């Protein structure tokens, strides 16, 4: 059975359970416990597999003198996708203007911070081995693995035993990751159950429906329109919906977990076994996209802030304010690598504080919908990572075509 179908069955069972169980039974802390437990299970194999695979990929790319070109293409694609989705989000909310959200701020605002300085310090900890134990922030691990791969490429004879060992460990860790991905079909029941419990509570307020619909419509436009059109423009003979079909599992995991580190193993496996992207590309590009390409987060952050602005003010938003929101939302999204989940709400808090002191607590009116904002953001982030990696790999001729019937 296809992985996406297993995940879909798990999601449907979880949603039905969360919807039909009475509030007294579904509001228990057990739901949150099992949600956190299975998210951790999904993350479990990421660090060892990523370290060994990233090292081997950098070694092979540097040995073939493709590392710089591939990195430049990856970051150009990241910037382009993030800016594109931010503009789409801003335009959509300006055209539709969903209903104002009732202003109710019962708790004291906390100054929003993305911990940029702490993030910079963590890139190079006092011991390189600490990068292996970060747990959530994968960029320090990628830096250490990149140094290791580049060092191996400087003297291939000396490093041959290490390369052979790391290659074997990479393949073993990949098999462990594949097994956990299969097991996570059961975990998706718990993950989607807890999601539905929160969603029921959100809908019961009757305040956020216009906002929810706007985010969902934006997501559908990006999923079925923008990215397929972009891929068709770049590669005229490519069927973009074949690529979209290979992203289904990643979209499900991203939407219901809202977690980038849980989604990354699923994306790595599908990019190789469904889309046919070579390991040396996906092992480098996908982690970089996961850390830096939070295009969905930029879109949802911009939309959320303009909804907040319209709720607080009856004045129309000015042109220069629109430009400011677009570029600041886009810029903040590049700093969310330390937040595998909940990053978009943290960015929204920072955006409110940067805009005006009067808006320091404004982000709190969307707190009940924070999980949903994160769900849409994570889903679009995953889609951006998959399409972006495929675009980079295709441009480098590092894709082995696979027929749809052989997708996992």
TrEMBL record:
The chain crosses the membrane at residues 44-62, 74-96, 131-151, 172-195, 207-231, 243-268, 288-310, 322-341. It holds the Pfam family SDF. GO terms for cellular component: plasma membrane. Keywords: Cell membrane, Membrane, Transmembrane, Transmembrane helix, Transport. GO terms for molecular function: symporter activity. It comes from the Bacteria. This is Dicarboxylate/amino acid:cation symporter.
């Amino acid at each position: 059975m296809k992985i996406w179908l297993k995940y879909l069955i798990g999601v449907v069972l979880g949603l039905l359970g969360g919807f039909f169980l009475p509030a007294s039974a579904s509001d228990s802390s057990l739901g949150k416990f099992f949600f956190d437990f299975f998210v951790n299970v999904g993350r479990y194999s990421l660090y060892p597999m990523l370290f060994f695979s990233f090292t081997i990929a950098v070694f092979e790319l540097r040995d073939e003198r493709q590392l710089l070109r591939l990195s430049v293409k990856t970051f150009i694609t990241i910037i382009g996708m993030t800016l594109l989705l931010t503009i789409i989000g801003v335009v959509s909310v300006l055209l539709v203007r969903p209903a104002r959200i009732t202003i109710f701020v019962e708790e004291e605002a906390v100054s929003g911070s993305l911990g940029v300085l702490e993030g910079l310090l963590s890139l190079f900890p006092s011991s390189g081995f600490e990068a292996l134990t970060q747990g959530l922030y994968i960029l320090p691990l990628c830096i250490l693995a990149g140094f290791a791969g580049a060092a191996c490429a400087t003297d291939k004879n000396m490093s041959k035993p290490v390369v052979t060992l790391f290659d074997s460990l990479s393949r073993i860790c990949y098999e462990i990751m594949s097994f956990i991905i299969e097991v996570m079909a059961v975990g998706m029941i718990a993950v989607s159950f807890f999601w539905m419990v929160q969603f029921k509570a959100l809908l019961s307020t009757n305040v956020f429906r216009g906002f929810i619909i706007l985010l969902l419509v934006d997501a559908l436009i990006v999923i079925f329109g923008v990215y397929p059109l972009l891929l068709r423009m770049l590669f005229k003979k490519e069927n973009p919906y074949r690529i979209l079909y290979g992203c289904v599992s990643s979209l499900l995991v991203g939407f219901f977990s809202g977690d980038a580190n849980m989604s990354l193993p699923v994306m790595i496996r599908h990019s190789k076994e469904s889309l046919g992207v070579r390991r040396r590309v996906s092992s480098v590009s996908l982690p970089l996209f996961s850390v830096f390409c939070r295009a969905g987060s930029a879109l949802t952050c911009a939309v959320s802030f303009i909804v907040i602005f319209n709720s607080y003010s009856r004045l129309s938003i000015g042109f220069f304010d629109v430009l400011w929101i677009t570029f600041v939302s886009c810029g903040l999204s590049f700093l969310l690598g330390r937040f595998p989940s909940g990053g978009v709400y943290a960015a929204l808090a920072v955006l409110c504080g940067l805009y005006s002191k009067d808006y320091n607590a404004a982000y709190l009116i969307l707190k009940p919908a924070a999980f949903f904002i994160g769900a849409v953001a994570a889903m679009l982030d995953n889609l951006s990572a998959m399409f972006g990696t495929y675009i980079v790999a295709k441009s480098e001729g590092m894709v082995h075509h696979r027929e749809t019937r052989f997708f996992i």
